[in-house]
């Protein structure tokens, strides 16, 4: 097997259900030049170093050429400026600081914590709304609607408009997960229409919040005036779209991967049912063991960088396979075992460095509440398909559907 063919196997859909043996093979060459020009890094310490290296750019404008196998991911055709995750300092830092003013410490240290009761209410309503216990699609009936509802409440989308928001989220999610034989042109056209409608809706909501601020994040960002100035409407639209798409897609996978892992580890599921506090370390181990983001492609080197004895040249396309790094035996003991009692879980599930996941506090809390409540309320839950059908996206890995059954649902 050549190095290039190994990377292509990792990206092939047939291996989506279990890429970890291929990741183990990939780690034998910590820095791999795949033959198409991309440099692929797969070991923990090397990935961590590059995530903190200011010579690595996230800005697509610094890419000298596209390199590496096709991920079937098109850049969004949008008139919006790049969101801050696609920018480098100082532009990145300014927008992230401004967004953080409304989202978390030190300015709003309790915003996420104080959503806990509301999150629990959303979870309870979704579980109560599950239909037949003979066959539950956990993705469709629970994991998918939960995060987008949370984002709506966080931004301040009126309750009567949440269904429209769900529709746009559905369309944009489908555009990230193309199906075989699907007309790419038509898919992109539908996605672009949804992005345009979403942008117009948000623009109207932003103007309304500027005139009549409420107790929500969008109001605070729309009226913010601080050391970094104010966000333009276009910057605010990009930030709101980022919170919707990035915050939704990753959390869907985190919750679904989590339930799949628990059903494969019934002893841990039993412990969680008896002790909801186990959800805190359990989610951290889950982020190591089955991270929702498998790899970070399309970074660019701004200078020659030597790592693991290999010089990555300036202008190279860089791929960081964080899911491989999370199972690096040089960093984690017995890395292929799911162990919520693991004491040292400095995982790469939320990245690291200046681009560490902005929404990590919220995602953690969503997953903790969701998994502990599912464990408590579903009586004798079991998988109906293993492995389930996976999404085709190689970056955002998770089941497209997760059919399960249970004997009953506790109140």
UniProtKB/TrEMBL annotation:
Family of this protein: Belongs to the cytochrome P450 family.
Name by which UniProt lists this protein: Cytochrome P450
GO MF, any single term: iron ion binding
InterPro entries referenced in this protein's UniProt entry, alphabetically: Cyt_P450, Cyt_P450_B, Cyt_P450_CS, Cyt_P450_sf
UniProtKB keywords: Heme, Iron, Metal-binding, Monooxygenase, Oxidoreductase
């Amino acid at each position: 097997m050549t190095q290039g063919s190994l990377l292509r196997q990792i990206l092939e859909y047939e291996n989506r259900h279990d890429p970890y043996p291929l990741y183990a093979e990939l780690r034998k060459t910590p820095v791999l030049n795949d033959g198409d020009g991309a440099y692929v890094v797969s070991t923990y310490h090397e990935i961590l170093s590059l995530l903190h290296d200011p010579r690595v750019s996230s800005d697509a404008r610094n890419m000298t050429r596209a390199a590496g196998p096709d991920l079937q991911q098109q850049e969004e055709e949008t008139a919006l400026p790049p969101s801050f995750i696609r920018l480098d300092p100082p532009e990145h830092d300014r927008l992230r600081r401004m967004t953080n003013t409304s989202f978390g410490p030190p300015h709003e240290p309790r915003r996420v914590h104080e959503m806990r009761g509301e999150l629990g209410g959303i979870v309870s309503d979704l579980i109560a709304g599950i239909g037949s216990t003979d066959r539950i699609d956990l993705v469709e009936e629970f994991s998918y609607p939960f995060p987008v509802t949370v984002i709506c409440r966080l931004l301040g989308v009126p309750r009567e408009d949440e269904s429209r928001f769900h529709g746009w989220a559905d369309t944009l999610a489908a555009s990230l997960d193309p199906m075989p034989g699907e007309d790419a042109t038509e898919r992109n056209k539908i996605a672009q229409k949804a992005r345009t409608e979403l942008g117009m809706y948000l623009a109207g909501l932003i103007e309304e919040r500027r005139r009549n601020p409420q107790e929500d994040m969008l109001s605070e960002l729309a009226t913010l005036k601080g050391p970094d100035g104010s966000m333009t409407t276009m910057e605010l639209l990009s930030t709101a779209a980022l919170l919707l798409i990035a915050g939704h897609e990753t959390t869907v996978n985190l919750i679904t991967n989590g339930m799949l892992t628990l059903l494969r580890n019934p002893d841990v599921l039993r412990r969680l049912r008896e002790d909801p506090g186990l959800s805190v370390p359990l989610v951290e181990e889950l982020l190591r063991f089955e991270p929702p983001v498998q790899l970070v492609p399309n970074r660019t080197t701004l200078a020659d960088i030597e790592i693991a004895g290999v010089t990555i040249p300036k202008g190279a396309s860089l791929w960081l396979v964080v899911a491989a790094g999370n199972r690096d035996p040089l960093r984690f003991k017995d890395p292929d075992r799911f162990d919520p009692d693991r004491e040292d879980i400095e995982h790469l599930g939320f990245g690291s460095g200046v681009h560490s996941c902005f929404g990590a506090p919220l995602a953690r809390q969503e997953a903790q509440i969701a998994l502990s409540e599912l464990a408590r309320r579903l009586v004798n839950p079991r998988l109906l398909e293993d492995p389930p059908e996976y999404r085709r996206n190689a970056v955002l890995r998770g089941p497209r559907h997760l059919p399960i059954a249970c004997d009953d649902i506790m109140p």
